[in-house]
Amino acid sequence: MSFFDTLNTSATALTAQSLRMDIISQNMANVDTTRTADGGAYKRKTVIFKEIGDNKNNFQNIFNKTLNKNQRLAGVKVEKIVEDDTEGPKEYNPTHPDSDENGYVTKPNVNVVEEMVNMISANRAYEANITSVNLTKSMISKTLEIGK
Q1: For 79-109, how does the pLDDT look when each residue is reduced to its tens digit (9 = 90+)?
Q2: CA–CA distance from 100 to each of 38, 42, 103 (Å)?
Q3: pLDDT at residue 55 above 80?
Q4: Per-domain residue ranges for the chain?
Q5: What is the dihedral of CA 140, 142, 143, 147, to 10 degrees?
């Protein structure tokens, strides 16, 4: 694995985690949205990641290829963004314009605590990849100093 492979892997992860943070922010911003363009309450969205490259990268294959020095890791990508179809909680508010005939309003299925935990997780993953990029840059710099 070369320095550039390491940088590329971290760059794909940074891009994926950035999009994840955007989706989490969108969920948090719509925590009280009871009417969307599609009708009904806002539905929480989730990001699904997928490994870039072949699907033969189980631990044994990676270990064997690494020993042979020909393993090329490719990174991660966002496979899709999916909507959570679970129904949100109902709140009794007969004066709300989106209330049903019984006076209940369907709220979005966004749990603020869960979104905050996801945001912290995405932030930590982003920070870990920034650290990886910085360490790789440091190794490249030290390697170039050898020739001086």
Answers
A1: 999 999 999 999 999 999 999 999 999 999 9
A2: 17, 16, 5
A3: no
A4: 3-31+45-83+110-146
A5: 140
